[in-house]
Design brief:
Creatine Amidinohydrolase, 2 domains, six-stranded mixed beta sheet, 13 helices, binds manganese (II) ion
């Protein structure tokens, strides 16, 4: 079943926390964005902006939210929704009305979008800063309507300092609430069932995209919103291309098949990588490599806990992974780890699959992160990555993806049932 709406108090609590971080004399503007055009009259599928969703629960494109510091009380938050449009509703379906917007978000002040500029201009009169943000990290991302809108605002309001909202959102979004963890767990449980089906249907001769289709079918059928990110199904040497998503090769009996996948349930996705032997049994060479990666995966799961920063986790991972790979003979010296390890040990996980993170900040209790060591042996045509999702606690972590098999005996055992 589709995820039920999160209660309005979840979003109210998140807004309260953000408004408490806003300094006196500031405003925050958060926008949901609009669908990106694909070609002719087609758009790419629209997904709500993660921060906008976190603060409102509203999925309606083009909606905006304006917030003042918490001390200003309830009058300091207004949600703006595009006016209902009967012709648009005929073609595209029901829009979010003002009353519905209020019920979903818990925001008392809900207005139609044309009132937005007037409100912003009057609210900013006695203020110095506006917190806002669009795609702040990747310079190659295309300019969206929202970028142009903000650019226009900077020209029309040159007296206002435009500040990054990201660092404030990082403080809030890195600690997952009970509701958020429950959604990630639900996504992982659906993924577990789907991967189990893959284990029982994977055969030499299958095409990689057929595995991708199997997963997508299971996710959507179980009520997920969408696939969390492009699925990687990489047989044999394809697995040494980290973001291999073409998924067009035929799977050979001797291949290991690397599957990196996520199901998005109620806006939260899991992110799991598993490696299965197409023929149902690992060869001796494959077994050794797999066990080596599993050893790092388990050692790092035993290491991480709240209070560590990504910098510390990555440093520790480099040492542990370097030692284990050297001992197994995959590298001569620990400094050669990047030649076969290729990437860092993991990332934060949440509303974004690569969630907000900052290398130096200690991760709080309640942070959800991935642990995903990899070993990529181009000459041997083999790539292995074992990725789990864990919830950080004071003492260590809880493995949310515990039930998805990763021990060789378990994998081979399930594959025997084919
Ligand atoms: Mn990942």
């Amino acid at each position: 079943m589709r995820a039920p709406n999160l209660p309005a108090r979840f979003f109210s609590k998140n807004r309260e926390a953000l408004r408490k971080l806003l300094p006196e004399g500031s405003l925050a503007l958060v926008s949901n964005g609009a669908p990106l055009p694909r070609n002719a009259d087609q758009n790419y599928p629209f997904r709500p902006d993660s921060t906008f969703f976190y603060l409102t629960g509203i999925e309606e494109p083009k909606a905006r939210l304006l917030l003042t510091p918490w001390s200003e009380g309830q009058a300091g938050e207004t949600l703006f929704l595009p006016p209902l449009d009967a012709s648009k509703e005929t073609w595209e379906g029901k829009m979010t009305g003002l009353e519905e917007g209020k019920v979903l978000s818990g925001i008392e002040g809900v207005a139609e979008l044309p009132a937005f500029e007037f409100t912003l201009f009057s609210w900013q009169k006695h203020r110095e800063q506006l917190y806002c943000e669009v795609n702040p990290i990747f310079p190659h991302q295309p300019l969206t309507a929202e970028h142009l809108f903000l650019e226009n605002l900077t020209r029309r309001l040159p007296g206002l300092a435009f500040k990054k909202l990201g660092p404030l959102m990082l403080k809030l979004r890195s600690k997952k609430s009970k509701e958020e963890v429950a959604r990630i767990e639900q996504a992982l449980s659906i993924m577990g069932r789907a991967l189990d089906r893959v284990l029982r249907t994977l055969k030499p001769g299958r095409l990689e995209y057929q595995i991708e289709a199997e997963l997508a079918h299971q996710y959507l059928y179980a009520g997920c919103d969408r696939v969390g990110f492009d699925t990687i199904v990489a047989a044999g040497a394809n697995a040494t291309t980290l973001h291999y998503v073409s998924n067009r090769s035929r799977i050979k009996k001797s291949d290991l098949v690397l599957i990196d996948t996520g199901a998005e349930y109620g806006m939260y996705s899991g992110d799991i990588t598993r490696v299965f032997p197409a023929g149902g049994k690992f060869s001796a060479k494959q077994k050794k490599a797999y066990q080596t990666v599993l050893e790092v995966n388990q050692a790092m799961i035993a290491e991480v806990k709240a209070g560590m920063s990504w910098q510390e986790i990555n440093e520790r991972a480099k040492r542990i992974q370097g030692e284990i790979y050297k001992k197994a003979g995959y590298i001569k010296a620990e400094k050669n780890l990047p030649s076969v390890g290729l990437h860092r040990i993991g990332h934060s996980l949440g509303l974004d699959v690569h969630d907000l993170q900052q290398a130096e900040d200690p991760l709080p209790v309640g942070a959800v992160i991935t642990i995903e060591p990899g070993l990529y042996l181009k000459e041997q045509g083999m790539g292995i990555r074992i990725e789990d999702n864990v919830l950080l606690t004071q003492e260590g972590c809880r493995v949310l993806s515990q039930k998805i098999p990763k021990e060789i005996a378990e994998i081979e055992g399930r594959m025997k049932e084919r």
